[in-house]
Every structure is written in C-alpha cells, then in structure tokens.
Amino acid sequence: MGKTLSQKIWDNHIVQSREGEPDLLYIDLHLIHEVTSPQAFDGIRMSGRSVRRPDLTISTEDHNVPTINIHEPIADETSLKQVETLRTNTKEFGITHYPMGHPNQGIVHVIGPELGLTHPGMTVVCGDSHTSTHGAFGSLAFGIGTSEVEHVLATQTLQQPRQETMAITVNGELPQGSSAKDVVLAVLGAIGTGGGIGAIAEFRGSVIENLTMEGRMTVCNMSIEFGAKAGLIAPDETTFEYLRGRENAPSEEFWEAAVNEWEKLYTDPDAIFDREVTLNGSDILPQITWGTNPGQVIPVNGVIPNPANFDDPAEREAAVRALEYMGLQAGTPISDVPVDTVFIGSCTNSRIEDLRDAAEVIQGRRVAEGIRTLVVPGSGVIKKQAEEEGLDEIFKASGFDWREPGCSMCLAMNPDKLDPRERSASTSNRNFEGRQGRGGRTHLVSPRVAAATAIAGRFSTPEDL
Amino acid sequence: MEPVHIIQGTAVPLDRSDVDTDQIIPSDWLKRVERTGFEKGLFSEWKDNKDFILNDEAYSAASILIAGPNFGTGSSREHAVWAIQQAGFKAVISPRFGPIFKNNSTKNGLVPVEVESDVGERLLAEVQKQPNIEFVIDVEKAIVEIAEIDLQFSFPLEQSIRERFLKGLDDIEITLASETSISQFEQTRLAWLPTQIT
Fold it and tell me: How far apart are CA B137 and CA B9, in angstroms?
C-alpha cells in the first residue's frame, strides 16, 4: 500500500523508532518567539544543557510588539521584559534574531516562508499553534508547548506518536468573490472544532491546487482550529515558483536536485486515508463566524442560527452562551449587524495578497463614520512591498490606520485591543471570548469582507457595496 | 516531572464545551517569563462572575476538573497546564482534548482522562448533585473508580506516557540517550536545507 504525503515526510525524519515508544523525529527548522520560549531557555540553563543547533533556529518578536512608535521602548513593562529576555537568550545561545524594526522582523509564520526558510518535505515546529501555516509548502509543521520547545532546543528532535491521516478535498471551483479564508471557514463549519483531532490533514482537490501560496498558507494556518496535528498541501509548480530565488531557498547549484526531491512529495494513488471529508468548492460563499469558536460559522448573506436547531446538546448550549456573549439574536441577518472595528492582519491574512485584496475593495471609497480600522502587515518585508505598490496610500486615503508589523489585535498582547462589547470584523483566526480584548466580540472574515465591512459599517461583501 | 500513581480527590464540574486555552489562561498572563504564579490567572475572566463554578465553596477542595468536549483547544500555551496544576488540579476529565493541550499535560504530570460523551455527561451531572463524591484515578491501570456511584471505567493512556507518569521521567534525558542516532541522522541531511550562520 502506498503512503500519504505526511507519512512520507514523517518517515524521512525518523531518527529512531522503537516498539511501545513514540517515534523520535528530526526537526529541520525551529522558529521561536518571545512568549513561549523564556521558560524553555531557563530549563536549558538549569539543566546545564546547550542549544544543539542554533543554526537551525530562527527567532523574532511578534506577539507583544506595538504597531506604532516602534522606535521607542515598549511601554508595557511585562511585554518589554519578555522581549528583552528573548534578545538576551538568543544572544547567549547564538541564535539569529530579528528584533522590532529589523527589515526581516514580523509574525513568525509570515517571515519563515517569506525568507525561503520553509521548504517542501521539511519538519518545522514552533511554540505556537499556527505553525501549521508552513504546511502550505508540503512540510510537516506543527505547534508545540514550552516543554517541547526546550526539547527541540536541547536535542533538535521531538518524540511524536504516529497520527491518523485525513484528506480534506475541495473540488470544483470557488464562486467569484470567495477566497482561501472562506474555504477554511467552510471546512470548520462542516467538521467543527474537534473534527481533525488526532489526525494530520492534507488539503487536496482543484480548489486547493488553484490557490496561490498566500491562499494555501491561509488554509493550512487554521488547521489547528479543527484540532488537526498539522495541515499540509502537496508541493507543485506554484510552490517551487514561490521559493525560487528567496534568501534561504536552495541555491541555483542545488535547485534541480531539490526540485527532484520535492516532486516525490505527494500522496500515492493507492494510499488510504483514515478519514476523508469532501466539500464542493462552488458551494463556498464568503463566510463569517457568529459565535465564540471558529466552527460557529455562516455565509455573510445568512442569518444568526437558532440554538434550538442544534441536535447535539453540547453544541446547543455552546450556541446559547455564544449568542449571549456576542450580543446577538437568533434570526437576525448578519448583514444587519453594525461593527465598531475592522482588523486586517494576523498570521492568517496579513500577506501581500491579502493587503492587495482589501485595497482593491476600498480604493476610491471611505471608511464608514466612527469605525476604527487597523491594517497590520505581517512583516517588515510585506510592509515595504505594500508601500512600494502604493497600497499604504490607498488605505490611508480611505481612512484606514496603516501600522507596523506584528500579531497585534489577533490576540491582544500588545496595546491593540477591543473594549468590552466592542464588535470587530477581523481577518484573524480565533473568535474566542476575550481573544481580541476582554469582553470584545470577534467575527472572523476574509480580507475582502473585512474591507467591505469597513466601508459599509456593517457586515458586507464587496458585491453589496 | 514528579511521578504520578494514584489521584484521589473530589471534582469540580465545568459544564461547558470548547473551553479554549484563551479562557483557561487569558493572554495578559502570557507576558510573564516565569514558570510559576499562574494560579491566579486560571479562568481569570470567568472568575469575576461570582456564580462561576470554580468560585463555589462546595468545590474548593477539588483536585479534578471535569469539562465538556473540546477542552483546551486553540493556542499552544503551556501556561494553561501550569495554571491548572498550580491551582491544585491533578487531572482533567473531558470527552475530547485539544491536541497541544493534551500533549503539554503529559509533559507536566497533569493526567488527561478522555471519556465517552455519555460518561462525561453523567460525571458532570453526578458531581453537580453531590460535590463530595470521591474519584480514584489509577494511572498504572488507566482506570477511574467512583465507588459512591458504583462506576468504574478505563481511559486511553499510551504505554509510553503511562511510564513517564509513573516514573516521573524527563523526555529530554530519554532522548539524549539516543544522541548517537541523532548525530548519525544529521550526517544524512540534504545539502540545501537552510542553516543560519551563528
């Protein structure tokens, strides 16, 4: 029997496999940031160990960084201490670090691919659940906790039990106006937040094949939202084209040999997945979440569901609680709901293509009265590119706030937060209670829907404008 | 980590599904660089509500947390596990765990007890009725016993994880015993894989 893509990558990285023990996998790339690493470095120091492969480790600061006045010291003392701790730790252990203000700094999952660090067939880990983003390149990439960060620092390996395999196939063609974000939100709507637990998901089918690398990263990014260990997509010409010439991509000397290896990375025709889910791409309209977990999702032209219509008691109770928290009534068309803030950014949707999508919608229009807007590019490189393309001017002319790179309002660890009961249209990945600020109400959408919503002042698609 | 054999104690019923790690420990707490002192952050936003179950005196001695399905989904923050442990809990019972949370639990000696949905619902109901019923979780046998309601059931616990719990083993030490294999593997890595000059 053949192997799936993820099984091939897994097998290529087995350092040791023993009966009754998890496999020991080699880690090709370890990304670190300020939030989940300090206790790991402490552990390394206390045990008298060292960092085995600083040359396979890359560090940046993203979660805590402010998005204005970045040349001044960070005002929040605990944030400052955390960022400074990372700077000290990376210096002590000889790890390459991109600090705030450096041209390569940015959200850890944006800068990896952008610098050409993520190749097909690699294993990539980071103390961050959205590490699944890198799976867009046909790599096996997953988030880990701080104990495992310490384990990778000390050994460049991880002990991992085998996972099930899952195929998520999206056939056909997307309707005009739907994007990668809508695809992954529709998957979440179909299988729920627990639908991928215990499995590595491979996205396949014509809709996935037709996505750009930016779109594929958006899809893989949210694999963790349905609980998958990782999400990945087989590499193809689109992947190779994206990588060629990037700083850390294989040099011309090795390019052909590398592509030959990468072309072996696909699921064999006779391989069998443990689970299979199939969606029809033409059914996927622009999506929006209405609740407090990303599986609570409807099309933007839909109405807020009635909890009584959920069969599963846990889902029903979750819906009741979510509507109360979100301040919404069952039966309301979501397009009637006004918003206070629009956030375009995060490791899900802060890449150049996302910014272009949003800029195209708002060009020549004005943000609705009283709406707060933030555009936070994913990295210094993206910010520069967007400025070269004049996107910043389009945003500013429409009344959008153009910021410095970082995670920003995705998780409210920096000063960009929602106030209690403030409602946002957000291109990020989590609508959990309080995620964007205590009491804040988050609706997850694509960059196009976020942009249109800023113009209309209530949830809208560009076609509604 | 400290060895864990038997957990004996009462439980608190957190009757909610999809308790994500942002709820367990809100992101403000993640700015700390220490590994201790997270108990006050546990469910800190929900705790402001005096009716929140963890504020109920009847459950103040509980050492087991029972929750609905999809407990610990979302962010990889190990701080969630530290907060639960530092608040005095030794095990969490749920029909389904977020995978990173579950993995983090096993690295810290917090026992994740995965149960069938109907068992989970029954446990929540029983503990809501009688806060003082005593649970015995036997890690070696991977069995939970609640004598007062005449219930005994087993739960999945991989052999390797069970051993780490029982002996309090350190993963890094286990791995470093295979250092030669790691070095050998490194000799075979492809020439073009990215490395940084350090």
Answer: 9
Q: What is the pLDDT of residue A30?
A: 98
Q: How many CA atoms lie within 13 A of A83 on its CB side?
A: 24
Nearest CB to A96 within list B22, B45, B196 = B196
Using the Cβ of A125 and the Cβ atoms of chain B, whether some distance falls under 8 Å is answered with no
Distance of alpha carbon A250 from alpha carbon B18, whole angstroms: 42
User: Which tens digits make up the pLDDT trace of B147-196?
Assistant: 999 999 999 999 999 999 999 999 999 999 999 999 999 999 999 999 99
Burial class (CB in 10 A: 0-12, 13-18, 19+), A241: exposed
- Is the pLDDT confidence value at A268 over 80? yes
- A77 vs chain B: nearest CA distance in angstroms? 9
Cβ A317–B160 below 8 Å, yes or no?
A: no
Q: Which helix (H) or strand (E) holds A317?
A: helix A313-326
Task: Give the pLDDT mean for A322-346.
Answer: 98
User: Which domains are assigned to chain B?
Assistant: 6-170 (3.20.19.10)
Give SS3 for B75: coil
Interface check for A254 against chain B (CB to CB < 8 A): the answer is: yes
Q: Which of residues 90-149 of B touch A (CB under 8 A)?
A: 96-100, 103-104, 107-108, 117, 121
